[in-house]
Amino acid sequence: MRVLILSHFNIFKGPINFLKIPEAFVFNGLKTIPKHLYLHEKDFFIYDNETFKTANLKFTVPSKMERTEYEDLMISVVIINEQISPKIFQSILKEFKEELKNIKNLYKGLYKSSEESAAKFLKIKEILLKYYQAIKDIKGIQLDINLNYNFPWGTHICYFYQKKEDLMDILIPYIKKGLEDNQFCVWITSEDLNEKEAKKKLKSEIKNYNEFLKKGQIEIFPYTEWYFKDGEFKFQRVLDGWVQKYNYAISQGFNGIRVTGNTAWIEKKEWKDFSDYEEEINNVVGNYRMIVLCTYSAEKCGINEILEVMKTHQVATIRKEGKWEILQRYNNSLFN
């Protein structure tokens, strides 16, 4: 279930649910949403409650009311009993905000005191209904790795594996799903599952794999030809390379780009540079129809390395006793 709420910090009443769609929907947790206006977060932020999740966007509009020069507003998508990332709504909330801000003297619609106020109110409600319909239709990207969770474009995920079979079990379905959904796929391999093994496994598991290959929809590189091109790791060159791959994907009519890279090649001397790269790639991935899955050997990572990896990824996953588990989901600081 998804609910769209416009909250307002009313100068007379404090934070209130100004408008809600669907209007008749009753859920006790919705009463707490306007209190998000008290939180220190600015612009877009995610709030994860035990019974619901929210994607929120704060903004202000000019006001000529006696007690204030501006009005504090917040639009929220409330997600109830649904496994989907709140971040998937970030771009549409920004569109909603801009359309609201284009209403001249919007503040008058927030205080029902005249015919003009009533007209502004109806305009606000009309826009709310329009975006509610759009929000209802949004779907996340399925990774096809049995996490029962849909992710938005721009997600950067890490997966800690224990053996080669674990890599096979996550990466083959991950790539297969991307190909089936008309996404351009790039796989960077290393010694734990090399290029030759990856190609052989894909060919045996995907019936029409050769057709995808002929279309130029998938590329597989060993790490030496991607991360270590010219004999050294330069993270800006790698970041630029991903943007180039993305531009190619879009120019060829693909829906986006699905990436995976294995990190078994990293030695202690490269760890800091690669960690800096992992942090910086969040700023790249978030701007494109791109999803990135980085695979780390749990055996080769100490506790400090694991914590560092989790810090630089929005989602962390592991497989325990044959089941996929999400260890971490969306550190809000990445999105504020």
Instruction: Decide which structural class fits the backbone.
Output: alpha/beta
- Spatial ordering of strands, largest sheet: 10-9-11-12-8-13-14
Radius of gyration: 23 Å
User: What pattern of helices and strands is seen along the backbone?
Assistant: EEEEEHHEEEHEHHEHEHEHEE
Beta-strand percentage range: 25-35%
Average per-residue pLDDT, rounded, comes to 86
Between the first and last Cα atoms, what is the distance in angstroms?
25 Å
Shape: elongated
CATH class of the largest domain: Alpha Beta
Helix content: 25-40%
Helix count equals 8
CATH homologous superfamily classification of the largest domain? P-loop containing nucleotide triphosphate hydrolases
The count of strands amounts to: 14
**Main sheet?**
7 strands, mixed
Predict the CATH topology of the largest domain.
Answer: Rossmann fold
* Quaternary structure state of the chains depicted: single chain
Q: What count of domains describes the coordinates?
A: 2
Q: Could you characterize the architecture of this molecule?
A:
The structure is a single chain. The protein is elongated. It contains eight helices and 14 strands. It has a seven-stranded mixed sheet with strand order 10-9-11-12-8-13-14. A five-stranded antiparallel sheet has the order 2-1-5-4-3, covered by helices on one side. It has a two-stranded antiparallel sheet with strand order 6-7. By secondary structure, it is of the alpha/beta class. The protein has helices at residues 90-101, 115-137, 164-180, 195-205, 209-214, 235-251, 268-285, 303-311, and strands spanning 2-10, 14-21, 44-48, 52-62, 70-80, 141-142, 150-151, 156-161, 184-189, 218-222, 257-262, 290-297, 315-320, 323-329. 34% of the residues lie in helices and 27% in strands.
